[in-house]
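Work Package 4 report. The design task specified in the project plan requires that, given a folded chain encoded as structure tokens, an amino acid be chosen for each position. We show below one input record used in the internal validation round.
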């Protein structure tokens, strides 16, 4: 989930229109037991920055990940508090958002691999990652796979060749060499390529 906080806004106070600058937006939950924003059981929310206080004039991100354990429709609930640089420490606006829903369908069986195994790259775990990340992908046959990591500017910062077997594959990536931020990684094999987003936060 990409979070974009604007640089400023205008407001009319006592018939006078003025410009105010966002210091940050604070994302909170009004669900306290447990504080899970209304997520389905088994899913968690994290973000960059980790305290979910998103700076003004910046683009940040949130990640919802995990394995849901209960089927049903779940209404998420966020409380957003806006802070302006002109009023330090004071929330000038509070808004409760309840229009996002997550629908978890009942389980229908266990995935098996027959003759038609399709290439697929999964999201790294954990995400955000501090040091080591587990990368998993499914290969349609044995061979060599290329693993590449790119920064947000599109520059390649890491590359590695992976020996893949047919079906499930996994390997560990040492992300401790990377600075905090958002990266894209790709796995390419047999002229097939898929990309995922990875967040590094310490």
């Amino acid at each position: 989930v990409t979070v974009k906080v604007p640089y400023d806004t205008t407001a009319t106070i006592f018939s006078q229109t003025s410009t105010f600058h966002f210091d940050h937006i604070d994302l909170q939950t009004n669900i306290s037991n447990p504080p899970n924003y209304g997520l389905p059981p088994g899913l968690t929310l994290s973000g960059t920055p980790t305290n979910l206080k998103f700076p003004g004039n910046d683009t940040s991100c949130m990640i919802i990940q995990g394995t849901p354990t209960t089927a049903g429709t779940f209404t998420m609930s966020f409380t957003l508090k806006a802070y302006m640089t002109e009023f330090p420490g004071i929330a000038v606006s509070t808004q409760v958002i309840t229009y996002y829903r997550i629908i978890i369908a009942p389980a229908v069986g266990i995935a098996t691999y027959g003759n038609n195994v399709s290439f697929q790259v999964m999201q790294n775990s954990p995400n955000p990652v501090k040091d080591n990340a587990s990368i998993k992908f499914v290969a349609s046959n044995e061979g060599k796979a290329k693993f590449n990591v790119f920064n947000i500017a599109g520059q390649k910062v890491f590359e590695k060749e992976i020996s893949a077997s047919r079906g499930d594959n996994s390997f560990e990536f040492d992300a401790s060499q990377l600075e905090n931020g958002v990266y894209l990684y790709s796995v390419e094999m047999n002229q097939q390529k898929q990309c995922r987003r990875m967040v590094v936060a310490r």
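The mean pLDDT is 86. Validation will be extended to a larger panel in the next phase.
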